[in-house]
Structures are given as structure tokens and as C-alpha cells.
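so i finally got all the pieces together for this one. its three components total, 999 residues if u count the protein bits. some of the lines might not be protein, just check the labels. i wanna see the whole assembly predicted at once instead of chain by chain like last time, that was a mess tbh
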Amino acid sequence: MSAPVALSGSSGEPPATTRVRIPASRTATPGQRQAFAEALAAWTLAGPALFFLLALYLLPVIAVVLIALTDWQLGGRSLTFVGLTNFREVFADEGFRASLLNTIVYVLVVVPSTLMLGLLIALLIESGRSCRAFYRAIHFLPFMATLTAMAIAWETLLHPTIGPVNQALAAIGLPTANWLRDESTALPVLAIIGVWQNLGYAMVLYLAGLKGIPQDLYDAADVDGADLWLDRLRTVTLPMLGPISMFVVIVVALRALESFDAVKLLTQGGPGHASEVLLYTLYRESFEYLRTGYGAAVAVVFLAIVLTLTVIQVRVLDRKVHYQ
Amino acid sequence: MSRATSIGRLSPPVAILRHAALLATGALILVPFVWMVSLSIKPPGEIFSTSFFLWPKQFYGVENYTRALTDAPLPRYMGNGLIVCAVILALQILFCAPCAYALAKLRFPGRDLLFGVVLIGLLLPHQVLSLPLFILGYHLGILNTYAALIFPYVVSPFGIFLFRQCFKTIPNDVVHAARLDGLSELAIVWKIMVPMALPAVIAFAIFSVVGHWNDLFWPLIAVRDQSLMPPPLGIMSFKNEEAGNDYGPLMAASTLVVLPLVIAFLAAQKWFVEGMTGGAVKQ
Amino acid sequence: MASVSIESINKNYGQMSVLRGVSLSVADGEFLTLLGPSGCGKSTLLRILAGLEMQDAGSISIGEQVVDGLRPKRRDVAMVFQSYALYPHMTVASNMALPLRMRRFSAFQRLPVLGRLLPGTARIASEIDMEVTRTANALGIGHLLARKPGQLSGGQRQRVAVGRAMVRHPAVFLMDEPLSNLDAKLRVQMRTEIKELHQRLGVTFVYVTHDQAEAMTLSDRVAVMLDGELLQVAPPQDIYADPDDRRVAEFIGSPKINMLDGVLREHGLLDVAGSALRVDADALAGTHLTLAIRPEAFHLAHQGGQGALTGSVRMIEHMGSDLFVHLDLAGINHPLLARLLAERAPHIAPGQTLHVGVRPDRVLLFTRDGRRLRRQAESGYASVTPIRETGR
């Protein structure tokens, strides 16, 4: 695509030489002509973006729903509408059910842990004035770092023999484990990595929230007698963080839902289906097993979950607007 | 929490406790990074010994990093990452800014509809689109090329949304003045709006580059050739195929992949935090 | 009820000194206003009074008690903030009840669920409810108790903030620019209400504002502050008519007071701008002085010479009942502003030469370093009046 054509305000008019005088009643008024020129300019400016939005977002999402409802296979020339057959197959599959359950468990573990740790660290950082940027940087680092590379570092940490985690546990007499190969530990370990990666994000959002609390409220609380740390926390800090907490919950939940890299690198969903999550199922079925209909159905389920969360967020945030 | 009031200052024991707690959590956070760097400078013998030292007895960094750069085409991976991120960002700004300007400052029929399309794009998790995009790439015959890595991202609904919000805060009079000065609409976008919204553009640039530098999901689908792989995919294939359990070079490669963003982040922390949390609007 | 005594307060922020040796006493039941431009330190002084900040030197007593180092809670003061600082997540009733809850409930009784089960909690809670309702009704916000601050208008929020301060009957009311967030019309209305509130409650008010009109209409006494110093504390009319300091004269009054430089001749004549003015002065001849004359102190004179200034009319502003006449005087850069009654000065036109006279007692004299020169009954001309407190 080339860049949009430059337009001036008068581009809607024909060149002056070809202009014909038409009786006044039939010409567009100057106002109409200007509106037309503005609309033309707008659509020219927005055209390329609109084209790609349609081609790369809107049509694909329609396509994925259609594929999920038909028996079309990759490279196939024919397709028939099969209704919810793909979905029935998906939900009948024990692997998918495990994946869905794992994803829910993963989100339910990662979100509260991330939130609480993020809030705690934000409160700690904000409580003093020294080294704020330093602590913020450290805790935010995992969120920035390439997870694929960091997952390999985690793998060596958790290595059954040479990993320092097991060595440390053994040294103090605790049982060790083959963390990534054990059905009971694989998902919890991935959850820990998820918390590790995202808590800095929650922290930064909370820091922004804390900054947004007017000093006057703390002063008022002081004068009103709520001057102990816990009273200030309960009277001002936590209630004022309410709206942003809702936001953090949803955003972290969406990020948790979309976790893929660590699973792909460390466990491939195994052992068995013990650490399989939705996005990994989506990837494997669609692109490794090339089960197009199945993959599309998983994608639709995934989309439904994400949209539900978003709707909840919009609803709740809308209500919270009255707060201030 | 006590804040900037002079009496709210922490008493020394509490201040020490704060530092202790934050240093402890910070240290825990840094463990994987420290371990990664530590392994990257250790010889195989020390990696596989069960003794626990951060600093190697025998410095083996040169060998590990050399192998990371030669055994795996790591420079190539990083170069790919750079090209892909740069082209994506350039195209995103090229397409998003004019569209955002139209949405923010022009009145035209269909504007709400257009904005609705942007919002729908904003809501969609990109992975859901991967299957149709893969098929589209297949039919265009561009799979396994740079184009495959780039095309799904040439327009960013988030970019349009962010720029629109930012452009809206620029007074209309600025636009009117520019028109009187004879600027075309497109010139207004590039000469007036984008420079005035530069902080938002930078924040978006960071959001975009970090996202695509770190992305594994789509490259995994879009390319097969070693020579096209961006860093995350490259390092994964290095792990799977060549290095195996040879952790020294693998950790050296990981360190090199993580390093550019970490350095950039430490140098411009404020911008990064802004860019990455501005991204929070994308739900 | 309590008097407030502030003694030689100093406060620095790093290198910057924001309060320098401020001393002031406020009588029990008095309405005192701290007036000054933004950045003069008046809000800092109020915050120190509240205990939100600590002075670097000096002492503060409220009533009989020295409160230095005491937390706000222990000071028996209430404060109304510029932003009102209402808790947005609490209803009006909870906002107003909070100061009472924090004082009357023990820490255990304030626990979320458990607290309600403790003996005495219910009784205290219903007492608090009653007091909140009574206060709210007195302020005319009884019907708003269940609402949240976000659902209230600016004036209603202001009343809630006042209610939250009033409900626990503090000895001293502190108000930090409480009207500055309201539109002009509401501001005038709330000003009256605050005045009435003070009269009804009869407690001590310390009120911070940068608005002269507020200070003048509300206060028993006004304390004018500038650059961290207290310049004068006096009843409003004295602040206007009898300022101690050149800066007070310049700060108070709109349009601004005219400032002219002159040299004293013998026999109470002062050479200024080519004329000789009769002034109430017989200090040493040859002394350089600054004259300050309010625009409305001038009257039309028939001729120049002694007792009148002569200049050419540069511009005339018609204000209805008054005319603002800008006069260019010989040898003076900035024009003189005279406020004349329109009916007495019918035919003035730009470019015309005009004589304006002024009564000697309407001319305020300042030394070149800005201090007021006053006549003292016995000894002719006083040297310089120190900062003093008048009235009360």
C-alpha cells in the first residue's frame, strides 16, 4: 500500500477550467462542499488502516468462526456446514477439558497472587522516598525480558540434578522434585513463572494508582484522626485503589490467559495434559496436528472467554466511574 | 502509607525494614537473571557439578559466548528481530497516525463505524486470528518470508486508539491554524499532530518493539527457515537442535537476546513503564 | 473554644525559607484570615497549625496547650480543604461520621465485621448517627446523607466538607481556600454562609485565602503575608486605609494604589512630579519619600500648584458611576490613576490637561525602604512603626 494521497480542503471540486456554472439552486452550498471535502479527506487518510483492519482483524475473526462451524480442512477445496460438531468434539476431548481446567486454575492462581504481591511491593516502594526507581526497575524487569530466553533460565534453575532449587532443598533436608516432569508440580511451577513475570506489571499499575491519590485525602484522614498506618490504608489507600484493582485484575487475567511461551519451551503441555493451557492447545491442534476445525473451535472458545472478561471489565469500570 | 508530608517520613527502623523487604523480593525476582548470566560464563564441568557458586572458578565466558554467536546464527536472529520490529513499527505509525487523525479531528459519515472496527480489533486476542492469517499468508505465498512475520501487524488497533486519544487533546485551533497556513490534511498529520503527540508515539513505539521482539507465537507459525527466525524462535531452535543440554552457550545466547531490551529499559525506565502500561488499555 | 498563639515560626523546604519568624495570636472566637498571594507561605502556616507539617523553629499553642509535635488528631482542630478532600468511596454520612468514629471507637470496635459485635459499639454508632444527622440538617444537607461525593454539586460538597469539620465541635476551624473551587456566584453565597456559621458557632476560625474580597468581608482581623513574612495584622478597614508597609498598600485594593516618589520640602510640602503637595509631615527637609494615594482619594481641582497634581489625560475608562482617569505626569513613567465620580467630572477628554487634588490625610507616606511614616500626636513625625497588631 502506498501512503494516502495528500488532500487540501478544496480537493472535492473539479479543476477550475472545467467548472460549469449551474443555477444556484442546484449547486451544493459551500458548506456542503466543505463537508464533502472533509469526508473525502478523512476516508482517504483512514482508508489504508481500514483496509488492513478489515483484512487482518475483522475478516479473520469471521473466518475463524466459519471454519469452526464447517468441516473445512487446510488446503481443502470444499466445505460443508457442520454446525456445532467441532465444538462437540472439542468438549468431548479429555485433553481439551484438561486444558480448559488447567487454564482456569492457572488464571485463578496467577491473578490473585500477582495482584497481592504487586500491591504489596507497590506499597513498600511508595512508603519511603529512597531508591524508588531502583526497586521499580528490578521488579519490572521480568515483564520486559524475553520470556523465551528466561524460560530456559528457569529450566536450568529447576533442573532435577544441577538446578540450584533442588540443591537448596536437598541441603536443608526437604524433598526435591523433577519440577517440570511431574504431573503435580508442572502447572504450579508455570504459575510461579507467570506470577514472577507479571507482578512487576501489577506493581507499576498500582504505583500509578497510588500516585493518583490526592495528598489532601491523607491530610484529611490525619485531621479526622485516621493517622495510623493501618487506618490510613483502610480509610484512604485501599478504597482509592478499588477502581484500578478491577482494571489490574482483568489485564493480568488476560495476560495469564494468553500465556504460551513458557509452556511451549518447558513442558509442551505435559506430562500428559498436566500443564496444557488453552493457547498451547490452540497452537498444537491448528499448526502441529493441522486439525483446522478443531483448532478453530478452540480459538472461538478462547475468544469467548476473553470477550466475557472484557465485557465484565467494561461493565464494572462503567459503574466505578461514579466513584470520583 | 505515609507520603510526602514531613511528619510522614519513615522512622529509621521502619525505613530499614522497607529496604530489607524490597531487597529480598528484588533478589528473588533477579534469581533467574543472575543464574542465567552465571551459567553463561561457566565451563560445562562446573555447570554439571553439584557445587553452588555464582562466579566460576574457571572463567569460560569467552568460549560460551563465541559458541552462542557461531554455532547458532545468533547475530542473524537479532538482525531479523531488528528488521521485523523496525518495519512493523514504521508501517504501524504510517497507517495508524492518519487514521487516528481522521477519527480525532475530522467529521465524516461513518466515523463511529470506523471507530467501532478499531475497538473490535482492540478486543481481539491476536492468537485467535492466527489460523486465518496463516491461511491468508499461504494463499499470498508469503509464508516463510520476512513478509509473513510482518503482515499481520501492519496496522495496530491499539496504535490508532492511543493516537486518537492523544490527538483529541490537541486543540482544534491548531488544526485550523495549520489549514489557514496552507498545510494539506496529510501534512497536518505528519508536521503538526505527530510531533505534538511525540510522547504517545514514543510510548507506542516501545510497546510495539518490546511486544514483537519478545513474540514467539506468530513466528513459530509463520517461518521455518533458520535464517528468518527472530530471537525467541531462534533461541528455541538453538535449544532444541544444537545446544541440547549444553547450557553454557545456551545461557550465553539467552543473555544476548535479553540484553538489548534490558539495557534500553534501564536507560529509559520512565518511557518503558509508560509504554508498557499504556499498553494496559489494550484488553 | 480556644485561642491560638503562634510564636516565631520558621519553616524551610531545603534551601528555601517559606516562613520567617511568623508570630501571631488569634483570640478565642475570632475570625482571622491569612491573606497573601500564592506562594507566600499562608497555606504552609495553616498546615503547621493543623499538625500536617512541622515547623523548624517556633512554638504553637492552642488554648492552654502547647501542641508542637502533636499529631493533628490530638490538636482539637478541624480543617476544610481547598479540594474538600472528601472520601469518594464513602457516603456523605460516612464522610461526616469518620472523625467521630476514629475518636470514639477503639481499634477493635473499628474492625470490619467483628467490631459490631463488641459491647458498646452499637450504642456509640447510633450516637454518631444522630450527631451526623443533626449537623447535616443544620447545614441543609440532611437529604444528601446517603449520596456519595461524586453525585453532589460543588456547593453541596463544600457543605459536606464543612459538616465533616463541624461534627466533632473542634476548638479551632482551619479553612484552606475553601471557596476557590466554586463559581463566582456560589462563592459569594457560601461566603455569607461561612460568616453566619462563624457567628453561630462562635469558635475560632483561621481562614486562608488569596482573595481580598473574602478576607475583607469575612474577617475580624486580616493577617497579610508576603514571601514568608507577616506584614500586618489588623481589622480589614485598617489594612486598607492604614497599611504599615508599602507592600501591604500595594497588595490590597483594586485598582492598585498609586505610588509616587517625592522629596520633602519644609512646612509639610512635598515636591512630586513638578507639583507641590501638602502632606501631614514635617520630617527633615530633603528626605526622599514614597507617597501612596488610593485612586478614589483624588478630587478634581481647579488649578495646579500647591495641593494638586497636574497631568495630561491619557485614557478614560467609564465604569458607570465612576471614571477611571489615567494621567501622564511630568517626569513619571507610569500613569497616575484617579477614580472620579462621573457626575462631578463631566467633560474630560484624552489629551486634556487636568488638575487633581488630594487631602493631606489621604496621602500615605513610606520611607524608601517601604516602611510607613506616621504622625504621632506628641513628637511630630515618628520614625518608623514596627509591625504591630491593632484591634482586638
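Residues 1-7, 279-283 of chain B have pLDDT under 50 and may be disordered.
Residues 3-67 of chain B form one domain.
anyway lmk what u think
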